[in-house]
Amino acid sequence: MYMAYGWPQVIPLEQGSCPSSQRIVYLKVINRLLLVVLPSHIELWSSSQHRVRLGKYKRDADSVKREGENLQAAWSPDAKLIAVLTSSFFLHIFKIQFIEKKIQVGGKQPSGLFLATITRVLNEQVPFAEKDLTLSNIICDSKHMLLGLSNGSLYSISWKGEFCGAFELDPFPCDSSEVIASSNFMGNGVASGEEPSGDFASNHRNSRKSAIIQLELCIPMRLLVVLYSDGYLVLCSVSKKGLKQLESIKAEKSLGSGDAVCTSIASDQQILAVGTSRGVVELYDLAESASLIRTVSLSDWGYTMDDTGSVNCIAWTPDNAAFAVGWKLRGLTVWSVSGCRLMSTIRQIGLGSVSSPVVKPSQDCKYEPLMGGTSLMQWDEYGYRLYASEEGCLERILAFSFGKCCLSRGVSGTTYVRQVIYGEDRLLVVQSEDTDELKMLHLNLPVSYISQNWPVQHVAASKDGMYLAVAGLHGLILYDIRVKKWRVFGDITQEQKIQCKGLLWLGKIVVVCNYIDSSNTYELLFYPRYHLDQSSLLCRKPLLAKPLVMDVYQDYILVTYHPFDVHIFHVKLFGELTPSSTPDLQLSTVRELSIMTAKSHPAAMRFIPDQIPRDGAPENHISSPELLVGEPARCLILRTNGELSLLDLDDGRERELTDSVELFWVTCGQSEEKTNLIDDVSWLDYGHRGMQVWYPSPGVDPFKQEDFLQLDPELEFDREVYPLGLLPNAGVVVGVSQRMSFSASTEFPCFEPTPQAQTILHCLLRHLLQRDKSEEAVQLAQLSAEKPHFSHCMEWLLFTVFDAEISRRNINKNQNSVSKHSTNVSLLEKTCDLIRNFPEYVDVVVSVARKTDGRHWSHLFSAAGRSTELFEDCFQRRWYRTAACYILVIAKLEGPAVSQYCALRLLQATLDESLYELAGELVRFLMRSGREYEQASTDSDKPQSPRFLGYLLFGSTYKRPSLDKSTSLKEQSAHIASVKNILENHASYLMSGKELSKLVAFVKGTQFDLVEYLQRERYGSARLENFASGLELIGQKLQMGTLQSRLDAEFLLAHMCSVKFKEWIVVLATLLRRSEVLFDLFRHDARLWKAYGMTLQSHPSFAEYQDLLDVLEEKLSSVASSEDQ
């Protein structure tokens, strides 16, 4: 897994003479060197810790004019020779030589970089020069180069400059002329696309002389891929001697659907990636007759070929775990083999957006890297950096920094408890103490270590996740997460003698797989974590050969050699492992297996502990880890082609489990804590299908796949989140996805790996319920009841079980086999019984109901309980928001009369609690259902029930308007009258107590007609006894120092003005100091003005309004004088 982090770095290139071709010719990384070939010059850069230009060769203008611009290039595998073909068909061969002049960079540590000279050693015109001839790219081995011509032939040139002649390749294999479409074609990659055409030699190819536009050579597979201009490919076999014998190149299979434009081979995975003119990448399995595995594209992200253009280039990471795709018109994207989108430079607009994803030229889009398209890409040899050049740009190359996930592969062990991504000089550690908010911590390695031992090559976390072992080019260092300190070798000479090829943790001991240069052998070194020094070395164990994979469990170490020889060692420690004592460690071989198989090599192997049945005493099993001690009899094998199998170490039998797997975690027997939620799981794997959970089977054969594997629909493949590991105490999978942050001060966005948590608790609970382990399910749920995601888990559990039940019933109904009476308790009922143990039950049930079709509610509530009883439970607990959600369910299941009765009760309760927004929703429901009920009802007694209920609920003192049909149309319904009575009663209560802020919130939330109410209650509850007491009381109720209170007062003032309620207008305008409103009142009522002034002046508490009086006095006197004149 590869994840981009930080800002893209810019490598500036020199400008040559004005080239006609505005594209970089060639980009390649070998031996920490980056070669860039431009139309008129060559640059050589270091691709190590420091990006420095080491040398260049610049052609003069006469040479460019005479021999043409650089057109194609190749770099010999030993990085000593460069071959360049020009547009006028001249072959230039250059030699790279390093001189003794060292380059000094910032810092105390020497850089180890030397300047280089590039000299031309050959300049000759090629013999196949023709006017209209075009060339493919150049491929090479250590002796020869090969290029394709537009006449369909291949031409060979030696690195000595010898022209070996052309070779006519027959593109029609005699033995196989069709593409075998995969029977297990997987179209859940990002776009399924169309399967390639079957018949290669059909009418799709009319011409035998199609131009060759690209060659791809894979020396380990002895495979040559030839891509023709008509969009078809031919797979050719190459002899052991490489490209020397052209006549030994034989076409074996033809492939494609006529739209291929580029290709790239992953030799480890044996996958061929083909880029098409449709903007889709097709992945073919070369080990299985070149069958189509899956396709990937950006179509599901809203981008079509019109946005990105065709695929322009594909580049696999060095370990073949991921590949980068560059598009001709815009951006690049990195995908995992499974089809997970790990990184993309193209800005995401959201899957639900209706707007076009095409970014219009504006200020916003200038921050997107490679906006003009990607012409070339190249990974460095470690996979830490992706170099890319933009179409039509000769000024610079962008370098994207990548971190790698600590996958459970090879000879480096890791644990799922601590999730780590490691970059070239840092660790990105997920801070998972609070699972509600995961954070990514950037941990820079000590400069004194990484400057000498760049880059990071191996990382392993201890079993408890509290210690990290990190190895660079030499030596290793340890990090204590608790105290945040590094531990290094005290003696640097000892550090330099260790070339770490793998790391494991054996309890408190670090196991290092060391390569010894002098003897070309491997050994295991055992160091205690408290002291990295030769004097503290516990044991040195020579190995027979280079280990393919290693694993450790308890006191057992597994080492597998090529081709498939498994050795298991038992570790015994004598003495205490403390600095004050001298412990001794001994290894004894307990098992050796040599397995003959034609399958691909193992990429990872993990011990599977024997799981003890927990029926007797589940707590005893967790708290007594010594019961688990024993030599594991099985192990899981993940092969390089993604096949997962189970190996019995007793008899050597191997059982295939599944395929298309990228990584897996063994969970059983891995944790000694009581709060481990996933102890009932054997292991989890991740691949093209998403997350697969494997449980121990209750059958006779505990590893029978039918009972063993369980797929969960909510753990489906997430195409943006890649899983890093597990948090067993929280029952969640921790994944990481890409985010981009933009800043006005930088040209490009910052790539930020963002951790995300996905719970699997609901899957584990459903598994236990399916196996009638209800008590264990309750115990498991109680362990995580305090977790922030618990309610969400319960909701997902009930939803998935209910959804499956609906589907099953529909199938049975179609088959007419649904049983009327079932003696067994259904899984739905078991699930409801489980969740009923927790207070979240009522909330979970109604949330699931709202997410499902109302036609199925009766089935849900037959298992969950009557909706009215659940409503009553919420009501008594004062969970009014949840109770409100039940109203619609009650209306559907129990009828409108019951739902209206419940809604009326709830309306009064929400008003009493000042929950006015919720009250507004209830009012709207009651008004709507009241009208529908009135229209639908033909029974004259039924409409009276809400009126009667209102009378019972709110007493005879309630002022109910007449419900006679002859009265106003607003009072036409008894249902509506009940609602109005409740609202008016509450308004009277608020107005009597002068709770004006609540009154405003009430009016806004329920859309209550305040104007009509004020007109009717002018001399009732809305009356002010006198101005002085009213001003004082309302001033206390409305704290005018706050903005909200002033807004509430303005709202009330507007309503009082509309009904000309003078007493309130004077009070509110005084509080708001609205002199213009008071002026309009007093200019026509001198008696009122006089009383107003006397009242304010006679009360000392009103002294603050003296300035308002002065303003009014001035305005009124000026008006009076003007009228006198």
Automatic annotation (TrEMBL):
Keywords of the record: Membrane
Keyword flag Membrane: yes
Keyword Membrane in record: yes
Domain RIC1 C-terminal alpha solenoid region positions: 762-939
Compartment annotation: Membrane
GO biological process annotation, one example: intracellular protein transport
GO cellular component: cytosol; Golgi membrane; Ric1-Rgp1 guanyl-nucleotide exchange factor complex
InterPro entries linked: Ric1, RIC1_C, WD40/YVTN_repeat-like_dom_sf, WD40_repeat_dom_sf
PANTHER family: GUANINE NUCLEOTIDE EXCHANGE FACTOR SUBUNIT RIC1 (PTHR22746:SF10), RAB6A-GEF COMPLEX PARTNER PROTEIN 1 (PTHR22746)
Protein known as: RIC1 C-terminal alpha solenoid region domain-containing protein
Biological source species: Rubroshorea leprosula
Lineage: Eukaryota, Viridiplantae, Streptophyta, Embryophyta, Tracheophyta
